[in-house]
Amino acid sequence: MGVAGDGRLSHDLIPGEKGPQDACGVFGVWAPGEEVAKLTYFGLYALQHRGQESAGIATSDGDSILVYKDMGLVSQVFDETSLGSLRGHLAIGHTRYSTTGGSTWENAQPTLGGSERGTVALAHNGNLVNTVELSELVKERLGGRRSKGELARGNTSDTALVTTLLAADPEQSLEEAAMDVLPRLRGAFCFVFMDEKTLYAARDPHGVRPLALGRLERGWVVASETAALQTIGASVIREVEPGEMIAIDENGLRSHHFAEPQPKGCVFEYVYLARPDAVIRGRVVHEARVEMGRQLAREHPVDADLVIGVPESGVPAATGYAQESGIPFGQGFVKNAYVGRTFIQPSQTLRQLGIRLKLNPLEHNIKGKRIVVIDDTIVRGNTQRAQIRMLREAGAAEIHVRISAPPVEWPCFYGIDFATRAELIAPGLQVEEIRASIGADSLGYISEEGMIAATEQPESQLCRACFTGSYPIELPEDGHIGKHVLETLPIQVRTGHDASIQHRPQDTVPSRDGQDAEGVSLGLSGGGENALLHP
Hints:
By secondary structure, this protein is an alpha+beta fold. The chain has two domains: 25-264, Aminohydrolase, N-terminal nucleophile (Ntn) domain (Glutamine Phosphoribosylpyrophosphate, subunit 1, domain 1, 4-Layer Sandwich), CATH 3.60.20.10; 284-455, Rossmann fold. Helices cover 25% and strands 22% of the residues. The chain contains 17 helices and 23 strands. The protein has helices at residues 36-46, 74-77, 80-85, 131-142, 149-152, 158-166, 174-181, 226-231, 268-273, 285-299, 315-325, 348-352, 363-366, 382-393, 431-438, 448-455, 465-468; strands spanning 25-30, 54-60, 65-71, 90-96, 111-115, 118-128, 187-194, 199-203, 212-216, 219-223, 235-239, 244-249, 252-257, 265-266, 279-280, 283-284, 306-309, 333-335, 359-361, 370-375, 398-403, 442-445, 462-463. It has a seven-stranded antiparallel beta sheet with strand order 3-2-4-1-10-9-11. A six-stranded antiparallel beta sheet has the order 5-6-7-8-12-13. A hairpin with a 2-residue loop joins strand 5 and strand 6 (118-128). The longest helix has 15 residues, at 285-299. The protein is elongated and about 70 Å long. The two termini are 17 Å apart. This is Amidophosphoribosyltransferase.
């Protein structure tokens, strides 16, 4: 992790270094007679890797909904007392990394909304790209009525907008409202939501983020990843389909399709985001990562003595590289298994000492050896630079870096918070220049074709925008997009021959012919030509 939205530090090797931040995790359960709050707690615990900023659970006993949420990890937010107060037969839960709206208590989920028909609680994984349009729709639907609920309390997330829209019409049931609102949303979303009696789950028509359905002996469960279902002893039934909404109550499960499916699953789930034991579209994520390592060895062989993976995400690919190359696999780094989010910023003196909270090199394994280091991505390069320096200090004779994803060159607007394009190391640099920048003896990235083949998914059904700049869900042409779009004045961008552009001084401004300030083609599709302006 890196610096949180509020400036607090996490436990990265380089204090302040911002890596690719995880999407959120959602969980929902309908199970009369079960301790649904505790089931949700353990489900969220299994999804903790998808967000570490805040966590929350909502439960209903059929008459009223209770919500408990706070900043921090799942294990920090909840205890026996708080879980004991959350009674009922259905629940939803959320663990958050912020992709729209800052990391504040007001933006923690589940969000709440209400009307004369009842209460709605909602949790969201993903990111909507028509947030400003939805904000205008909220004003229209409220018809001059004063904002209430989450929006009135300062929630600046796209989730609060959706919650408000679901509760805006007192004449509609929640199910009817959802079938009206869901087709109006653009972007990536997996929702779990509920009223006092019914659990709902919905997935965007592109199925960008994963969402799975499971069965308990006395109920049903939905979760961002299959591993969370297995953690609580549920059997995996299937994925919630793109463009599908399911409803679960005392009458059983029913399915509605609110849009035609156009699958574009996020390839980065296979590379980094999902747990290795997750299964997405029939492919075990761990197996995909091992195969990426094998493919790396085929594409970028090297004479070396030891293959090591950067814990934890680089280890499966390192296993595959070792298997394919015949070079022994070993441990090169020791990871502190107990380091959590730290809010203490090291002093300059401690920085100069090279404080290492997360990783230390295993010197006796490394000294005098030619090392192949496998990692999943290079974002800014600072982390790899520090790792290579540590390995050299530990006596490595040669260091060959292999990356199990292509170069990340574009920001994601569908639920992953990468660095801005200006901060990414890959745009504008050749591989050899990146190698020199991080100090490696050689550097090789997997090809896009090799990565896709490892997922065993059709190329046409994968979103690869962070590698290609081709965004499958059209982005707003006017620049109304970004993590803090509801908190700050948006950047206004108008394209066309007479376009005028208003921007902050630090922004890089694309020219009228689809090139950046240095004349490099932006190579974007679908409303993305101003992506350099986006956070």
